[in-house]
Amino acid sequence: MKLKKLVPAALSLALVLSLAACGSPSEPSGSTPPDTNPPATGSAVPGTEAPAADDSLQKVLDAGKLTIAAEGNWVPYVYNEDGTGELTGFEVDIAKEICSRLGVEPDFQISSSWDPVEAGMDSGRYDCIICGVNPKPERQEKYNMSIAYAENPFCLVVAGDNEEITSFADLAGRSCANALNSTAGDLARKAGAELSDASLTAAMDLIVSGRADATVNNVAAVEEYMKERPDMNVKIAAIYEPEEGEEWIIQSAVAFQKGADTLTEKVNEILQEMIDDGTCYDLTVQYFGQSVADSTSIYQK
Fold it and tell me: Which of 22, 33, 54, 138 to pair with 201, CA 20 to 30 A apart?
């Protein structure tokens, strides 16, 4: 009787041991096997974050406007029309055409001098700068820069009776009135001049009063100023000739926030269309004359 009772118990114990042996020796009973499949393509690896998508273009489209910084009182680039006060100029018209093709409105933010324009851009208040911005290497590192859409040669201006300064080489040790962070200021500094911060209008006053020896600015802006102010005793002493490989010095481009790639790419497409269909050429003729437009290398096909 005792043997009959022990047989079923022994069989039950053998069955339990047999079932336990069928499992993985490294997995405790009731555990969930680890997922050995690799993560799906595009999924984030645990402990890392995917880079944020660039939505700079979509933000502008959603806002319905492009916030544009520029320096005002810069005839014929950015200025207010006499009588009406309407903002106009070559750069203004370039900006308006870009916005029209983007399908948004231009939101101009105008400063009285150049340095606040860059300061506002650096603080993230603007989408871009459209104001004859020179795509120098330092700016290309700091901002996204568009393709060039215009060329603006620089000139050296002195008092009408100044016979000592006849070239950029003569600026060494001289006082030059210029925006400190501008390309024109860089050219004067490179020539050895000592700079004092001033707009074009203020620079002309300083030269005439004998408080500055010279200023450097765009040829078109200086010629326009001299036409409007024939009473000012100033003259163009020299035209700056870029060295080979430095043609960018006289080029104009749009500056965007660094990393705003989708917005930059779209505006590049628009600017190329404007060059190809003659829009940039026609605006250059309107504001600077036929000879300037015909001599602009980026318009040559």
Answer: 138
Sign of CA dihedral 29, 32, 34, 36: positive
Residue in 247, 254, 230 with CA at minimum distance from that of residue 297? 247
The answer to whether residues 252 and 216 touch, using CB atoms and an 8 Å cutoff, is no
Single-letter amino acid code for the residue at 89:
G
Whether the CA torsion 162, 166, 168, 169 is positive or negative: it is negative
Site of tokens 């008092």 = 159
Parse the chain into domains and list their residue ranges.
Answer: 54-150+250-297, 153-237
Identify whether the C-beta of residue 212 lies closer than 8 Å to the C-beta of residue 177: yes
Fold category of 153-237 in CATH: D-Maltodextrin-Binding Protein; domain 2 (3.40.190)
Q: Which of 91, 43, 51 is nearest to 70 (CA)?
A: 91
Q: Which residue has the tokens 């606040």?
A: 116
Fold matches, 54-150+250-297 and 153-237: yes
Q: How many residues does the chain have?
A: 301
DSSP assignment of 208-228: HTTS-SEEEEEHHHHHHHHHH
CATH of domain 54-150+250-297: 3.40.190.10
- Sequential pLDDT tens for the chain (301 residues): 433 333 344 334 333 333 333 343 333 333 444 444 444 333 344 444 545 679 999 999 999 999 999 999 899 999 999 889 999 999 999 999 999 999 999 999 999 989 999 999 999 999 999 999 999 999 999 999 999 999 988 999 999 999 999 999 999 999 999 989 888 999 999 999 999 999 999 999 999 999 999 999 989 889 989 999 999 999 999 999 898 888 899 999 999 999 999 999 999 999 999 999 999 999 999 999 888 899 899 998 6
Backbone angles phi, psi at 131, to 5 degrees: -165, 50
Question: Reduced to 3 states, what is the DSSP secondary structure of residue 301?
Answer: coil
CB distance 208 to 200 below 8 Å: no
